[in-house]
Amino acid sequence: MSERLAKLQGLLAADPNDPFVLYGIAQEYAKQGDTARAVEFYDRCLGADPAYCYAYFHKARALQDAGRVEEAIATAKVGVAAARKAQDGHAASELQGLLDELE
């Protein structure tokens, strides 16, 4: 386990529903190529905060990198809708661009 991941796990122990920490852990697992763990933590992040739009983007990317393109497309679609609902135009635009690339 990387030092950064260990620190994030420590922060998570203090607040298991902190979306920022959950997202950070997901990012660390994604960097390590551990798609299953990354997706697990992106999902936990989104469970804690469904408007955490970049979790959709990076979850879709992790799924794409793992060859799970249909799941990546589904994730990006949900992310676009969530970003629009949150009125986050920048995230919606990036997610739509990813969706266009995937389809």
How would you describe this protein?
The protein is an all-alpha fold. It has a single domain (3-102), classed as Tetratricopeptide repeat domain (Serine Threonine Protein Phosphatase 5, Tetratricopeptide repeat, Alpha Horseshoe). Helix content is 81%, strand content 0%. It is built from six helices and no strands.
Q: How many domains would you count in the coordinates?
A: 1
Main sheet attributes: strand count, strand direction, barrel closure: none
State the CATH class. Mainly Alpha
| Global Rg | 13 Å
> Per CATH, what is the topology?
Serine Threonine Protein Phosphatase 5, Tetratricopeptide repeat
CATH architecture: Alpha Horseshoe
What best-fitting shape do the alpha-carbon axes yield?
globular
Computed structural class: mainly alpha
Under CATH, the homologous superfamily reads Tetratricopeptide repeat domain
Task: Work out the strand percent.
Answer: under 5%
Order of helices and strands: HHHHHH
Mean pLDDT, as a whole number? 95
CA-CA gap between termini: 35 Å
Q: Which residues sit in consecutive blocks of at least 5 with pLDDT less than 50?
A: none
